[in-house]
């Protein structure tokens, strides 16, 4: 008999079973010109909160559906917990999904929705009731059990969809943009809660989102996808601070990418002028771009006397509470800079401001072509 | 002082609202009263009149027509009308059930077709109903008559006696009803299938439901509103059907519609005919009421609109 959720929680030292996932050369196309996945190799560790991040149409949802068994790859092998499941139908995989639209059964009560997976697995009624109640308790849904789906708010439906999948205690939980339909406040709350649940259950979570903030807050590791290929697979910090290429950099919100006109030993000629890079130097290729993260730009008096100093004109300035955002112009190049709010003066449009970028904050990334 | 003009404007607004409501609903109400309520009242009152010597409805008000309908005649009680009613119900239930069985896969198949092909497929389903009912019934008479391929086949299988046809028979009536009402089931079912939420099916599959179970849990409930609408569209007119049993039943498999028709035309006993059509109306309303209850239970408390 499987151990109940609450027992697991009370007994955190006991290791729960969690499964790793391996994808080898997975390809999927829906027609000749609609290639969703173009040879994906990927290993997701057991018990990891793993996020597939990318713009719409990048293949992240297709990848999730292949893990669920709802789509079959044209080529490649999918293994869960070391077992090849490529040809296993969805109802025979110990994998459950939280759908973007929640996909709750409108003709069933909340209790029957949560208990659906257990019923299909042939769990007897008493055991089922116990586990559903337990799960409802865990996810704070108990007062809603007898309600109908159409009587519930979006946030409540989201929790039920999560409970319905979790109660089956799958080896892997798949989440397809489960928070995208919720308002910002609730979304932030549920991000934290999802992360907490994952840590406590030690289950393997595969989370799909197009929101890089959400991905960074929640994940152990992130795979950034575009055009059906993995662009970068690393920890949130590495993906944000050391993007592998211009696509990842732009997707993570870094807009300051400068073309390199000419390169010397430790100096680069760019559109805003010569830039000094870290002494250790980087392996560089043709078409590489220089990345300047907005928060690494020093403004005003802080910039004086520093290397990589330039004169900028403020084009627009925005007060964002915790930080100020500036649209700057250096020579003919537009740069974005964030300056954390420490009570200093907010520069206004047309102000001339000195800026500097510390060499250690500079890096080069592969261009779109590479 | 400043309250008065405000009060007046509120009264004015209310008057305008009432006028607006009356102007928008009156034409419809007028239409319904003139063409539904008044004729129905006329029919009801007719049922309580006496059949006159020359077949004209006349006073006094009696229950004669209902007694006659219940089977009490000059020669005591006979079960003839009861049989007709039961036969009508039976034919309706069998025909409707078979229409459902045939229409369900057709509707599903059409939704699987290419977008551009679907209107053509629907047209093919509907086109036969553009031909006159009588002509279609005659068509079936020719197909099912003795010494036709279909009848010969039935004979060789031992289903009917030699030198007999499949027509006239209650089988022919059932067939005629199915043929007649199939489009009325396919169309609402198609509408239901077209807006089917397939993620529910995927959710069921993901939660360990086999394909068959997923159908019952995720597909069937979603098509239920279309199915119930189709059942009403098929069963109600089938129950009162006149042409098909008259022509394909060969005077042997009469349904209640034929009873009504014969009293208004041949037999010329209008009160009797009116009483019979009232019985039809009550049976129909009862059926719809039961369907709604059933729909509500299956729909999980959500209104399944008919």
TrEMBL record, chain B:
Belongs to the binding-protein-dependent transport system permease family. CysTW subfamily. The chain crosses the membrane at residues 21-44, 89-110, 122-145, 165-193, 214-244, 270-291. It is found in: Cell membrane. Pfam families: BPD_transp_1 (PF00528). It is a multi-pass membrane protein. InterPro entries: MetI-like (IPR000515), MetI-like_sf (IPR035906). Signal peptide: none annotated. The keyword Membrane applies. PANTHER family: INNER MEMBRANE ABC TRANSPORTER PERMEASE PROTEIN YDCU-RELATED, INNER MEMBRANE ABC TRANSPORTER PERMEASE PROTEIN YDCU-RELATED-RELATED. Residues 85-291 form the ABC transmembrane type-1 domain. Keywords: Cell membrane, Membrane, Transmembrane, Transmembrane helix, Transport. This is ABC transporter permease.
